[in-house]
């Protein structure tokens, strides 16, 4: 059947929803049913991808088109979009207890799911035909359904890119501890809201965009850095990198040619589902990226139906990384959990496997995968999905907070990113030298200038320093700590022009948080938060001494800090209690016969414990 391409000229404006009206879990995007000249959000996100000219009348408006001619029904059937017949091709529906490669149904190209009702409205809008459920002229160059066995027949040619991915969400709610007393100016750019950029470094597109997507999103420059802009010319990310995501469907990649073309990173598929469904090119692609010193990350397509599946998918992902000799520190781009709608069949028992139906179920799945990856040392993690899912079964603040990479082949990524660092898969139709066929293209970067932090551990405290994120403008800084044990914020240096601060606190686990603003306008510029295990400076016990004299034992502790304070405590093992305590670096002790522990403590000059040492002693 002849397929139509979504034309950018047909796209009218999205319904704008004030953030004050958006509630977590219920974002009221329009359905556009019965409005011929409007295009649904999913259709816009799907921009540039081919849709069928005909939809079988037996299909429900709420069924999902997940490939140019494949529909997932609400009841878990996999059907031909144009005939309504059940598809039996094992490459599409699965075989035994093994799910299908999620890219097989699109011959390796990405596709953002669209509701069948929206496709019908799109057909009406383009053709003026009130009944889109009619057979159109066949285009032999497109995929078609074999009437004999209802199997998808693929045309010959080179494969394209990566899973069925999509759009983004507006107005999600932030989560986690609130960042102490704040003002709108101070936090104008936090959690994905549009930040106010001082006029002193206004947008500067110094050269025409070389590429982007069909809806006008494009590359340019901003404040002297490479940047990506949405179709309205609004900044998506500065200090941005052009990144591809690849799988076995790209086959052999000439990585040097890819790098020479200007690609600055790659996210590589490790596999899909659980049970060892490794991507056949995963290790080869990882080695290829490393051979040309290209920054990379990895992703895994999830078929998880519960927490147990998620844990196994994480373990499978870790296994591939270990097989490739990849350590967490080797990856500059995130480790990604790819969440998309799925349906597959197990012919051995007739069971239908479907993606979870509630945000609560997905929250448990994501948390299980996340904690398993973290326990293995992988901390740069992200969820990937598209707008329809993020507004539906993934519409939960805790999930949105973990989602740093979203797909939308439209004018803008409507998702309210919770982090300054973000990624947008803006097209599935990229062409890159060194890769056969199409490939997904992404922009990864920062909405606000990245704030780089450094520190020096001194005897009495820790000196924390900030590298100014922009030059030639007056800046102010604020330094704060969040105690993960007491769950309390504390400001240890208020707003001023000093980009260094001395941090003194008790031993424990903290978030160290720094904000930067314009000194004159107080416009928010950037922030940085890192986790930190605090110890009170470098004050340490250089050496201890315990020796018999004529009538007693001399105990001593020497510190590297002349202003340090020292305590010596004695524990009687037989009596199971502390029996004496001395203040100062030296003490005279007359013990009774027995076994003891001698315990030395050293403090900073203001009384914060820095180090302890304990030794057994017999008298």
From TrEMBL:
<feature type="region of interest" description="Disordered">
    <location>
        <begin position="200"/>
        <end position="219"/>
    </location>
</feature>
<dbReference type="Pfam" id="PF01183">
    <property type="entry name" value="Glyco_hydro_25"/>
</dbReference>
<comment type="similarity">
    <text>Belongs to the glycosyl hydrolase 25 family.</text>
</comment>
<feature type="region of interest" description="Disordered">
    <location>
        <begin position="124"/>
        <end position="194"/>
    </location>
</feature>
<protein>
    <submittedName>
        <fullName>Glycoside hydrolase family 25 protein</fullName>
    </submittedName>
</protein>
<dbReference type="InterPro" id="IPR017853">
    <property type="entry name" value="GH"/>
</dbReference>
<dbReference type="GO" id="GO:0016998">
    <property type="term" value="P:cell wall macromolecule catabolic process"/>
</dbReference>
<feature type="compositionally biased region" description="Polar residues">
    <location>
        <begin position="171"/>
        <end position="185"/>
    </location>
</feature>
<dbReference type="GO" id="GO:0016052">
    <property type="term" value="P:carbohydrate catabolic process"/>
</dbReference>
<feature type="compositionally biased region" description="Basic and acidic residues">
    <location>
        <begin position="134"/>
        <end position="157"/>
    </location>
</feature>
<keyword id="KW-0732">Signal</keyword>
<dbReference type="GO" id="GO:0009253">
    <property type="term" value="P:peptidoglycan catabolic process"/>
</dbReference>
<feature type="region of interest" description="Disordered">
    <location>
        <begin position="91"/>
        <end position="111"/>
    </location>
</feature>
<dbReference type="GO" id="GO:0003796">
    <property type="term" value="F:lysozyme activity"/>
</dbReference>
<keyword id="KW-0378">Hydrolase</keyword>
<feature type="signal peptide">
    <location>
        <begin position="1"/>
        <end position="24"/>
    </location>
</feature>
<dbReference type="InterPro" id="IPR002053">
    <property type="entry name" value="Glyco_hydro_25"/>
</dbReference>
């Amino acid at each position: 059947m002849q397929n139509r391409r979504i034309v950018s000229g047909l796209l009218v404006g999205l319904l704008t929803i004030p953030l004050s009206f958006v509630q977590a879990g219920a974002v009221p995007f329009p359905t556009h049913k019965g409005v011929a000249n409007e295009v649904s959000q999913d259709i816009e996100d799907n921009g540039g991808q081919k849709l069928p000219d005909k939809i079988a009348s037996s299909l429900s408006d709420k069924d999902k088109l997940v490939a140019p001619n494949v529909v997932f029904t609400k009841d878990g059937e996999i059907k031909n979009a144009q005939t309504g017949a059940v598809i039996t091709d094992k490459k599409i529906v699965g075989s035994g207890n093994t799910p299908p490669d999620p890219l097989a149904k699109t011959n390796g190209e990405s596709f953002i799911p669209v509701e069948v009702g929206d496709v019908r409205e799109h057909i009406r809008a383009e053709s003026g035909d009130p009944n889109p459920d009619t057979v159109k002229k066949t285009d032999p160059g497109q995929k078609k359904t074999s009437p004999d066995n209802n199997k998808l027949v693929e045309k010959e040619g080179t494969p394209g890119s990566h899973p069925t991915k999509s759009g983004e969400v507006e107005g999600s709610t932030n989560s986690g501890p609130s960042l102490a007393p704040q003002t709108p100016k101070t936090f104008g750019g936090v959690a994905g809201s549009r930040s106010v950029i001082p006029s002193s470094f206004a947008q500067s597109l110094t050269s025409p965009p070389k590429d982007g997507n069909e809806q006008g999103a494009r590359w340019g420059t901003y404040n002297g850095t490479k940047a990506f802009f949405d179709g309205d010319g609004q900044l998506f990310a500065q200090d941005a990198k052009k990144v591809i995501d690849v799988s076995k469907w790209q086959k052999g990649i000439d990585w040097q040619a890819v790098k020479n073309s200007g690609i600055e990173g790659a996210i590589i598929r490790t596999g899909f589902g659980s049970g060892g469904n490794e991507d056949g090119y995963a290790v080869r692609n990882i080695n290829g990226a490393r051979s040309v010193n290209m920054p990379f990350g990895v992703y895994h397509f999830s078929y998880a139906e519960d927490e147990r599946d998620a844990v196994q998918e994480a373990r499978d992902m870790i296994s591939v990384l270990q097989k490739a000799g990849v350590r967490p520190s080797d990856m500059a781009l995130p480790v990604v959990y790819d969440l998309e709608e799925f349906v597959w069949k197990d012919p051995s028992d007739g069971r239908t496997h479907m993606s979870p139906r509630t945000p609560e179920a997905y929250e448990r799945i994501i948390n299980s995968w996340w904690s398993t990856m973290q326990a293995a040392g992988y901390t740069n993690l992200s969820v990937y999905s598209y707008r329809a899912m993020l507004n539906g079964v993934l519409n939960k603040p805790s999930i949105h907070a973990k989602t740093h990479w979203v797909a939308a082949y439209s004018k803008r990524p409507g998702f309210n990113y919770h982090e300054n660092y973000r990624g947008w898969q803006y097209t599935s139709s990229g062409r890159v030298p060194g890769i056969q066929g199409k490939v997904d293209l992404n922009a990864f970067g920062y909405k606000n200038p990245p704030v780089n932090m450094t520190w020096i551990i001194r005897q009495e405290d820790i000196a924390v320093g900030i590298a100014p994120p922009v030059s030639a403008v007056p800046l102010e800084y604020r330094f704060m700590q969040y105690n993960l044990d007491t769950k309390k914020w504390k400001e240890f240096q208020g707003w001023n022009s000093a980009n260094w601060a001395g941090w003194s606190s008790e031993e424990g686990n903290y978030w160290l948080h720094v904000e930067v603003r314009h000194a004159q306008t107080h416009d928010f510029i950037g922030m940085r938060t890192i986790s930190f295990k605090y110890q009170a400076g470098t004050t340490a016990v250089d050496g201890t001494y315990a020796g018999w004299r004529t009538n007693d034992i001399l105990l001593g502790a020497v510190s590297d800090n002349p202003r340090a304070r020292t305590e010596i405590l004695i524990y009687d093992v037989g009596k199971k209690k502390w029996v004496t305590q001395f203040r100062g670096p030296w003490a005279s002790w007359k013990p009774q016969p027995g076994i003891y522990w001698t315990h030395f403590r050293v403090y900073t000059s203001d009384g914060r414990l820095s180090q302890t040492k304990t030794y057994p002693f017999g008298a």
